Amino acid sequence: MADERFEEPFHWLFGDQLGPHFLRPDSTVVMIESRSVLRRRRFHRAKAHLLLSAMRHRAAELGDRVRYLRAETYRDGLARAVGDASVTVHHPTSHAAARFVREHAQVRVLPPRGFLVEPDAFSRWAESARGGHLRMEDFYRYVRQDHALLMDGDQPAGGKWNLDTDNREPPPKDRDTLPVPAPYLPREDAIDDEVRADLDRWERKGEVSFVGRDGPRRFPASRAEARRALRAFVKKRLPTFGRWEDAMLAGDWAMSHSMLSAALNLGLLDPAECVEAAEKAYRAGEAPLNSVEGYVRQVAGWREYMWNLYWYFGPRYRESNALGHHAPLPDWFSRLDAEAVEARCLSTTLAQVRDRGWVHHIPRLMILGNHALQRGWDPAAVTDWFHRCFVDGYDWVMLTNVIGMSQYADGGRITTKPYVAGGSYINTMSDLCGPCAYRPTERTGERACPYTAGYWEFIHRHRDRLSHNYRSARAVKQLDRISDLDDVLRDARRRDPDAAP
What we know:
About 45% of the residues lie in helices and about 5% in strands. By secondary structure, the chain is mostly helical. The protein is built from 21 helices and seven strands.
């Protein structure tokens, strides 16, 4: 292994390694815009725009220091950029990219950047886990202690590690939007115009195909924009983030969420600066502890946990299908056709994905993921859909989030129970059910809520497994008290003929 005197003349930046913490001094930077990445999968148009815009903005900032190649493949681009010369790269964020760089003897892989915990440290923590059981809450406390985040000495700030119970408030009544400032909105420039023109041309020529709508760009594409977005969130939106963290409003797609996940996953922000900015606001009395702790838990807890589990579980994890779900995704879902759906919650959420390539974690989990889980859609296909259709979607974050949490396809390695719920949950946590054609309390008939009926059909389909899980056994017992269960099952199968049998 070469020593740390930077013997390699070139340093390669992937498209999600765009912040200053990914650079090496005195090295010529290589960036490769691979067309084959866009050919292989049908990405959301806004995602493709954001990625190319961010890469080209970074290249413009680096100026003469960068060799920016537009190539068919990474292999072709690397050969054209450096020939046989040695090159370094920080650990990529996917199994496929990691395999690719390790196949090249000329490439030296450096430790990962953009995360608080390295995989080796996570492995040591996992091996010391109590009883061999991995729990996100235990890992979160480990990160808090190890990085001195929201700590008063050796105790958590405020005396509690987790204030989740304070962050489950339903949305305010009689309001279409939260009483908070709008999220930061970047300004498009000539680079965005160039990207949009390229995407238009490639589509017209039939070289690529997208889903969803593009424009205006809503997420940072440069370090300067990302820092402004972080400052705006901490100052204007963090104070109200916690109380409505799990709430939904049909007319407020952003709520009080940070909208920083895309910038983080592009490498434009480092997680340390995000959680440190949030803690600084708490210490200054500018944001309540429940909001700050909730945000820190998202970034330093869940995001770090997903990243490290991705590497800890390995490539075979994507094959997990403990529930035996194999139903294909319907065409309307794949096309983001919100008009094809009558259920208002699903139609609204699908339209938000179509228009922006983003919704916050509750619509992802309890509307989109919940619907897919109830209908027994193939978890690998659901994972791919989330990866392609979200601007912040990358293999490492979607694989564990969807396979493990959303679809329970790993049988409980990440969560202790399936995240499945009926219409009553959605009705409590949103304003989506009122004008809907369906009623959240009805499970049969023309006005039966697809989520309520689907919930009981799911519990019935997996009753043997769920009856042995202490967190879901109660639902199985309730199932036995439903006098019209046969009608529920019949209606559910008539309504969703392509769902799991």
